[in-house]
Amino acid sequence: MSEEIAGVRIPDTALVREATERVRDVAAPLVFDHSRRVFLWGSLRGRELGLAFDPELLHVGAMFHDLGLTRSLRRTDQRFEIDGADEARAFLRGHGITGEAADRVWTAVALHTTPEIPLRMAPEIALVTRGVELDVLGIGYHEVTDGQRAAVVAAHPRPDFKNQILAAFAEGIQDRPATTFGNVKADVLAHYVPGFRRGDFVEAVQGSAWPE
Fold first, then answer.
1. What CA–CA distances, in Å, run from 95 to 35, 86, 88?
2. What is the C-alpha to C-alpha distance for residues 187 and 3, in angstroms, rounded to an integer?
3. SS3 readout for 74-131
4. pTM of the entire structure?
């Protein structure tokens, strides 16, 4: 029987069940609960905005979006968002979902920390970002009801979430500081990693191989 939280039905399919177990196996409870909330917030925002979206694809994108922070899946040579995106696409391909649908989920995960652009794209892409923005930044907080927020948080609590998620971001990306060039995670390392110096776009242009 399918689970329902805040009026959002969790799809009762093998794909969703296996995605849930995959994330539960490799991610800390902090990331697991955050990811489930992202699906729920994204679904609620999608309903409110009148968007037609595939709940299975949205679920996979939401659940996998922070897997690049986990010890077993993170790399040091690319952005953590791409770690999660690659894992999501491989998971979908393993379940026979390829082509545009798999690429849509890849894009949803890869762009979830990029402001504005995902919101102009396919609903699943936009709603992963909206879910993340609501849970982490409070963007859209008042677009869901008090009752909906209470139901989601009761199912997936967020004790000391602000401090805990920032610490998780720092721990997950501190070994690849160069990958934060030009994105919001540079702010995390600036606050949490002593001696970190963010990349400078102007210096990169002026110091390029071009003579002028």
1. 21, 14, 11
2. 37
3. CCCCCCHHHHHHHHHHHHHHHCCCCHHHHHHHHHHHHCCCCCCHHHHCCHHHHHHHHH
4. 0.96
